[in-house]
Amino acid sequence: MKLRKLELKDAPLMLEWMHDESVVKDLQADFAAKTLEDCENFIKAAADTSVNMHLAITDDNDEYMGTVSLKHINGETAEFGITVRTAAMGKGYSRFAMEEIIKTGLDKLGLKSIFWCVNPENKRAVRFYDKNGYRFIDMKNRSVEGYTKEQVNKYVWYEVRKHPS
Fold this sequence. Notes:
Layout lengths: L1 E4 L5 H8 L2 H4 L11 H10 L7 E6 L5 E8 L5 E8 L8 H16 L4 E6 L4 H9 L3 E3 L11 H6 L1 E6 L4
Parallel strand pairs: 4-5
Antiparallel strand pairs: 1-2, 2-3, 3-4, 5-7, 6-7
Helix pairs in contact: 1-3
């Protein structure tokens, strides 16, 4: 397993998870409407890592398994995101990628905190975060870039903070 920059060759497998109802049913965006061209454009845009860092999660043969991201990077905080193909579920890819991108954000980018949310209907994700000891935070009635007030209040929020040295 490794993380690397997204490459155009990843687009067909990225589109695979976007069109997999079992993967996207509880996600915020309408991934079912995405095309191969949308995936290719996303990959091209991902070359600029100044505000968003999107990396490919790959197996040992460099096959794309999913995408892990730090979004809205502002020097202090960033939002974490991850999606993996069905073929990668239950095989440690999510745990590996999450640990690596959090380490990158806190240690290399010097962020103070990384946060994320999950739809409470996404029981698999909630179990994963809880099982791995991630800290729940109360975001009710707060403003979060890219989310409506209703979404902020509905979703389950987590955060990892940098420990003082």
